[in-house]
Design brief:
The chain is mainly α and about 220 residues long. It is built from ten helices and no strands.
């Protein structure tokens, strides 16, 4: 005789394998609401985007490449609008539909171009500050050299390198008129007593002369 008790596990539909509508909506909402912050790296943002796409697809929602491209573009900040407009024009002329990976490759190439441009602009600004830098009368050689070396470090961080001779004569050009006679005698010495001057050698000579002047003024 069959038991009157029914097996609830077999009678009820198995919903564990079927994502709920709420889960699908939630996953899609996270994709649509995602925004890339100004200054964020494309690769970092793309990683977050792909995680969210994986969540959507795990909810049994397949998003084709066209949707993913449009969705990713929607996440970009305003600084990318002009570039995306130019991409859209190029896409109209190309019968091949854009892909997410293709879009990311173009965005990263533009990101690299912008970084190089920004680096050049920073270097130009640093060079202007370097050429405008002047040592004031009464300033210690070490103090002025510290400011000078800070600008040199900025240039080298930006990938711009000059030889030691450039730095030496650039520093000489910054010195006030009270150093003119000393520099003339120093350059005459360099001309007839190789090896040629170095930046650190110049600083050593300047500091020795500074100490000599201080001792003379104190007497």
């Amino acid at each position: 005789m069959q038991s009157p008790c029914r097996n609830q596990e077999t009678d009820q539909p198995n919903t564990s394998a079927t994502p709920s509508l709420a889960r699908k909506v939630s996953a899609m909402r996270r994709v649509v609401d995602l925004r890339m912050q100004e200054g964020s790296k494309v690769d970092d943002h793309a990683l977050i985007f792909k995680v969210l796409i994986s969540e959507v697809e795990s909810a049994n929602l397949h998003l084709d490449d066209t949707f993913q491209v449009a969705a990713f573009i929607n996440t970009l900040p305003q600084s990318w609008e002009t570039f995306i407009s130019s991409l859209a024009v190029a896409w109209e002329r190309d019968p091949t539909p854009p892909t997410l990976e293709g879009l990311l490759a173009q965005l990263k190439a533009e990101e690299a171009r912008r970084a190089a441009r920004d680096s050049r602009m920073r270097n130009i600004g640093t060079l202007r500050r370097l050429f405008d830098l002047k040592m004031q009368e009464g300033t210690k050689v070490d103090d002025h050299a510290r400011s000078f070396k800070f600008l040199i470090q900025e240039l080298e961080t930006g990938g711009l390198h000059f030889d030691d001779t450039f730095y030496t004569y650039c520093f000489i050009n910054m010195l006030p008129h009270s150093w003119d006679a000393f520099i003339s005698s120093l350059m005459l010495h360099w001309e007839f007593a190789p090896p040629a001057c170095t930046f650190e050698g110049l600083l050593t000579n300047l500091k020795a002369e500074e100490e000599s002047r201080a001792a003379r003024d104190s007497n």
